[in-house]
Amino acid sequence: MPLILGGLAFLFKHPAAGRRQIVGYRVPGDFCDVHLSELYPLDYSVAALGPVRVASIPVRDLSDLLARHPAIERAFALAELLDLAMLREWLLNIGQRNAQQKLCHFFCEMSVRLRAVGMVNGDGSVELPLDQAVLADTTGLTLVHINRTLQQMRHDRLVELGKRRLTVRDPERLAAVAEFDTSYLRVEHGRTAVA
Description:
Helix content is 43%, strand content 18%. The chain has 195 residues and is of the alpha+beta class. The protein has one domain: Arc Repressor Mutant, subunit A, CATH 1.10.10. A hairpin with a 7-residue loop joins strand 2 (9-13) and strand 3 (21-26). The longest helix is centred in the middle third of the chain and has 27 residues, at 70-96.
């Protein structure tokens, strides 16, 4: 079972005749699959978003570890609950938010998750090697819509995205536009700020 040690990865699916849909991201400390899918093959693919360091842990060894250590087993159960909470939030994002809210929400979520693993710089920026095609596949928007929305967000001084770096210029306004509530991410108090 792959464990992300450094860098970022994303989970995606390909419809039979359509473009890729990104359905989640993995940050350092995340397993690519928290469901111990030894019996069932994954129904999604995983790809690196730039350079990634990965450790491979045999499922049998991990299963033995969980059986012997209830606290670790509970941590895995919590990771599954978090995975499901993020999935529900992504469904809401795809189905109910407008283009700007979708991007703002995604940027808020990634900022919080990357802050929790120490990947946010002092100026509030994060290394996020995203291009507009990846953002389109993440949000379900077209490239043209992504481009226009990013231009508007830059004009409004919400974010700056370029050179593999996301800088959140106005964290409070970004969260307000996104209607972002960190509670689904279950991060500890004091580490929930967007930037």
